[in-house]
Predict the structure of Hemerythrin-like domain-containing protein.
Amino acid sequence: MSTISEVIIKDHRQLEQYYNKILASSDHDHQVRFGNQFTWELARHFVGEELVVFPAFEKYLDGKGHEMAEHDRSDHQLIKELLKSFQNMKPTDSNYVDRLQGLWAMLSQHIEDEEKNDLPALEDALTTVEKASSSIAKSFGRAKAFVPSRSHPIAGENPPFATAVGLLSAPIDRLTDIFRKFPD
């Protein structure tokens, strides 16, 4: 059974891997496929955190958890704006790599903060609740199966509005994903 930290960190490493695959290639088809994969994974990861992890911060970490959740929601909103502009670009666009690198700079700082501060604090709080971390990890995985696969920053950053708009966007995203290229 995985902890919520293990699941989140695994997602972070996958995102980094997709980012590096885009940068390491000059093949536009390869970049399109991994750009779509990067977008798909990041959008799902963020909404999963917003639906499952941030409420866990607030539930198990009291006032500090609320502050952490609000800070991370704010980070997510800024990164979603960058992701939205990136997800509509083509590798042939002159600023494609620059846009991706700017997105990654902000995202990697967010990831570092989450891994050094937020997740350890949550895990410490969860040690008193039997199997809570693995239960949250399962909920996170389930949530990612139903959320949008593209960035929709217009949905806002606070549930329930963001959740409702996201869930309405998910079927449309899934349908358009059929026509997008992804890694084999």
